[in-house]
Amino acid sequence: MKVTTAAQIFDGPGQPFRLEQLPLPDPGPGERIVAVGCATLCGSDIHTVDGRRREPTPAILGHEGIGHVIAAGPGAEADVGRRVTWSLADSCGHCRFCRRHDLPQKCDRLFKYGHADLADGSGLNGTYASHILLRAGTHLVDIPDSISDPVAAPANCALATAAAALDALPHSAERVLVQGAGLLGLYAAALLRHRGVDCVMCSDPVERRLEQVASWDVMPIEPENVSQIEECDAVLEMSGHADSVVDGVQALRVGGTYVLVGLVHPDSALALTGEQIIRKCLRFQGVHNYAPRHLDEAIDFLTDVGADDRLLQLVSPPRPLASLDDAFDEARTQTWHRVSVTPNPPSSPQEN
């Protein structure tokens, strides 16, 4: 009997997803097969589907997810049965970026889940499927039962990236402005308060988002009032809007730190002079993706917070994987920070 898995295939912008049954391979040394319990739609996938970002096709998109390890290759057998999330990238652990520069997310042989075509390895590279094959060396983190699937699913993208951004801040930071209250900014603000930072402010033009950050004891700021803020130890740019950087620089104290995270797109030219940076002795730091330890920190935060309605309200009730096109339509309305989908897989792979 042939063992298969259900997968939504992306053929390119303007084309509907194509639900297919694909062969489920036997895992090789160090590999694991995870039955996906829940996946969430990242904004980067919306950009890809809408043609604003290019990815190889045909492909299984999706990198945010949670599931149970149902099979493992030699050397990883002990992982079977674990409820896990995983790092969105697989790195070699031996190159200069992995060993010397502490940047495994920039590994010379980096592989990113949800960003590879069907001809790359097993093809089961994304979470918009009932199963995903995790390559040897991919970092796994156990998810406790206290964390629901929809809350855990975005942790291996937005929450871990927020943890990486905080890693770039000076330990002495007591007054921090977060620009943008999308999921990335909200997570960052919540993490800062959880870590005991006294004054955390967050700016965003959407009133509903400001109400959500305020529930974490964060001071909500309307964008037009950011120019009145000053003496911040650090500013986190998480809005993706280049014109916000001028206000951010003004808000920093002399010697402050600016961390750029959201401007990872071509339309990101900055209206700054070198003099503005030099005279204030500012430190700029770019953060892109994260290292495995940041995913550990993300799950530690969720574990500490526990079953919290504030987190559950950020994610939509799950839609069936078969209705993935509808899920993308819902995501475009921005009603939720994340829209979730579930394949509702059986406990073992389907046999035909």
Could you give a quick summary of the protein structure above?
With 352 residues, this protein is of the alpha/beta class. Helices cover 24% and strands 24% of the residues.
Explain this structure to me?
It is a single chain. The protein is α/β, with parallel strands linked by helices. It has two domains: 3-158 and 290-351, Quinone Oxidoreductase, Chain A, domain 1; 169-286, Rossmann fold (3-Layer(aba) Sandwich), CATH 3.40.50.720. The chain contains eleven helices and 18 strands. Strands 3, 4, 5, 8, 9, 16 and 17 form a seven-stranded mixed beta sheet that branches. The protein has a six-stranded parallel beta sheet with strand order 12-11-10-13-14-15, sandwiched between helices. It has a three-stranded antiparallel beta sheet with strand order 2-1-18, with no helix packed on it. It is globular, with a radius of gyration of 20 Å. Mean pLDDT is 94; it is low at 345-352.
